[in-house]
Specification:
Largest sheet: 9 strands, antiparallel
Structural class: alpha+beta
Helix content: 10-25%
Order of helices and strands: HEHEEEEHEEEEHH
Number of strands: 9
Number of domains: 2
Shape: globular
Strand order of the largest sheet: 2-3-4-5-1-6-9-8-7
Length: 261
Amino acid sequence: MIVDNQDRYIKAHTNLSMVQYEKAPITEAIIDIQVEARSGMDLSFLEEVANSVRSDYPKRKDSRVFEGIVEFGPSLPVKTTASEQHDGFVLTDESEKLVLQVKLSGFTLSRLHPYTNWEEFRDEANRLWEIYKNQTLPKSIARIAVRYLNKLDIPLPVRDLRDYLRTYPELSSDMEPQIVGYFMQLQCPQPSLKATAVLTQGMIAPTVPNVVSILLDIDLSRSHALPTEEEALWELLDQFRHAKNKIFEASITDRMRKLFQ
């Protein structure tokens, strides 16, 4: 039986949630909890949330959602309309590394680069969720997600993406063996978690010279059979993070890992 580098890596690191890199490629980590709002819910309740966390998240701006409608028919000219609605607030800490979105539709916490660790990020999300939940009293939770965006900087020249990536676009042998840009998205069921992982990958503009930058975006979500108990909810988010790590490690090679050391 052939055992490749990834198999050896997983066997040597059975607890992938403990793997940490000196130069982690994470540009943004997200915990998202979408809700079904209760009757009578309005922005005044979100104002209370913002006021409750003002000492830690003093920077505030409105969140707005835009909607466009296009109407057309065989005997009518095309008609377009657009509307804008204030649906919540975006709150930022002094460092501008933690961004909290509180909306009528739910709660999102983002940690921007440099990422610290899951436990610190999760505990802060848990604390803020309790404030949001107690102020807004949502009817139910509609969706939960853990999402990580990674920027992989591969030094030039890059002869073959397979040297760095185990999930990658593959060109037909009848085509010219070069690409200057790509975007792909894979939806991968996670039966044990009753969830779906969406893996998005593509070339993005580099921020440093002499590299090719690849976006590796992993989004794990579940929108049915959600836990009703708080402890079970956060245990499930822990499992999402662990599954995210496995997908990340399964997507890269040892040569890529060396770039994070």
